[in-house]
Design a protein that fits this description.
Strand order of the largest sheet: 1-2
Number of strands: 6
Helix content: over 70%
Largest sheet: 2 strands, antiparallel
Oligomer: single chain
Structural class: mainly alpha
Low-confidence stretches: 1-6, 118-131, 434-444
Mean pLDDT: 82
Length: 444
């Protein structure tokens, strides 16, 4: 510890009184702070806790610092009391009294025994003095500075530990309670470790939270993030990284459990709907196979796609889903239902596309028949229904369209010839009837 030098000129009575007033106010403030630190909940918790890690190391230092603080404070109190006694001897202090007061108030007049600052109990306190000395001397001002330094470091450690203990264990306990409720719910729907990923996640979260709580209780300073640029005691915040990660993981598991619960509630309805969709797909494929036989019998010279049978794997999976429901294996039923629903819709779409592809020739024939009859009606409205040439063209097209098997390519050409003939008659100038209709037998 450095020496402050000689106290300087002898102080007069006014300077002495002002110094005593200032030192008295500082004494009162220091005493109030020390008593508050002594009664601080964080300090009491630190004294009774089984600490580990960085907290154990820092508390050993802080505890030694607090002990040293009281030693310094007692020495400060004795020195201040002695100065007040000298000042109170007489109303107008003598020259000798003022010289003695100047030495007490400005010089290194406070002596602290080496046993108080060098014992094993205070070995971890900040190094404020040399080693191997039987006693240490301070001025009252220097002693106040030393106490302020020790108090700030000790208070920072106590406030930091208390802040972590106040924030994290309670939050961990609340999350653990929610975890237990989720575990019970998961077990009721068959989500168990080793059988479902969410069950394994719950086990991992349980182990992590248990370990986290033990670490927070025994080593709170390991979970403290100091604020950048802050020198105030307790400047910073608890590190909730692990807690936040496990809270998010539990939320993900809860959503998974909710999905399984939803499956349990509407599983039968979804299974009924699945059976209906697959049944409609089977009926549609059966209709397509029947239609294919009809097309092959009625339509000639055309390619008709082959209709495959219903996939047996979907029926097998449907039976598996029903079995899962009977045995309340909701965690397995949930993904299987989702997959089956998509596959069933795809199968129904495939069956409808097969039916459309198979019946396409019949649809073409129906369209040609409709077109032929529409032109016949149009011709009749214009009074040309009895035209022999049109009758001949119409009969030729009709025979082809209503014969079996029907050659669609030939029938389409016959319909086109009838359309062109009708269009020519409808657009040609009307000639007064003298010798009957024109002879168009040469137009073939």
């Amino acid at each position: 510890m450095g020496v402050t030098g000689p106290p300087g000129p002898v102080m007069d009575r006014d300077e002495v009184d002002r110094a005593l007033a200032r030192l008295g106010a500082e004494h009162e403030a220091i005493e109030t702070s020390l008593l508050a630190l002594q009664d601080h909940a964080g300090r009491r918790l630190l004294e009774g806790a089984e600490l580990t890690g960085v907290t154990k190391e820092r508390w050993a230092t802080a505890d030694a610092s607090i002990t040293l603080l009281w030693t310094y404070f007692d020495a400060y109190t004795d020195a201040l009391r002695g100065a007040r006694d000298i000042r109170s001897r007489r109303r107008w202090s003598s020259r000798e009294d003022l010289a003695e007061l100047t030495e007490l108030l400005r010089g290194e007049s406070v002596t602290v025994a080496g046993s108080a600052t060098g014992t094993a109990a205070t070995a971890n306190a900040p190094a404020l003095h040399g080693t191997g000395r039987l006693s240490h001397s301070f001025s009252l001002t220097t002693l106040v500075d030393r106490m302020n330094e020790l108090y700030a470091s000790s208070l920072d450690m106590v406030v930091t530990a208390d802040a972590v203990w106040s924030a994290l264990p309670a939050r961990i306990d609340l999350l653990a309670a929610e975890l237990q409720r989720t575990r019970r719910l998961a077990h009721s729907v068959g989500v168990r470790p080793g059988e479902h990923p969410a069950g394994d996640d719950l086990e991992h979260i349980t182990h992590t939270l248990t370990s986290l709580r033990e670490q927070v209780v025994s080593d709170p300073l390991a979970f403290w993030v100091r604020a950048q640029g802050s020198s105030a005691p307790g400047g910073g915040r608890p590190d909730t990284t692990v807690y936040d990660r496990e809270a998010r993981a539990l939320e993900d598991v809860r959503r998974e459990i909710d999905a399984v619960l939803t499956v349990r509630q509407d599983a039968e309805q979804r299974l009924v709907k699945l059976r209906d969709v697959l049944s409609r797909a089977d009926r549609t494929l059966a209709e397509a196979r029947t239609a294919r036989g009809e097309v092959l019998a009625k339509i000639a010279a055309t390619e008709v796609p082959v209709v495959s049978g219903p996939p047996t794997v979907l029926q097998e999976q449907l039976a598996t889903a029903a079995d899962y429901r009977r045995h309340a294996q909701w965690h397995r039923l949930s993904p299987l239902l989702e997959s089956l629903e998509q596959k069933a819709e795809d199968e129904l779409l495939r069956a409808r596309e097969s039916l459309s592809a198979v019946t396409q020739p019949l649809a073409v024939r129906a369209e040609l028949r409709g077109r032929l009859d529409a032109y016949k009606a149009k011709v009749a409205r214009h009074g040309l229904a009895e035209d022999p040439f049109l009758i001949e063209r119409y009969d030729a097209a009709r025979r082809m369209l209503w014969s079996a098997p029907c050659d669609l390519r030939v029938a389409e050409q016959a319909v086109l010839r009838y359309q062109r003939a009708a269009a020519e008659l409808l657009t040609a100038p009307r000639v007064p009837e003298q010798g009957g209709p024109q002879d168009r037998r040469g137009e073939q």
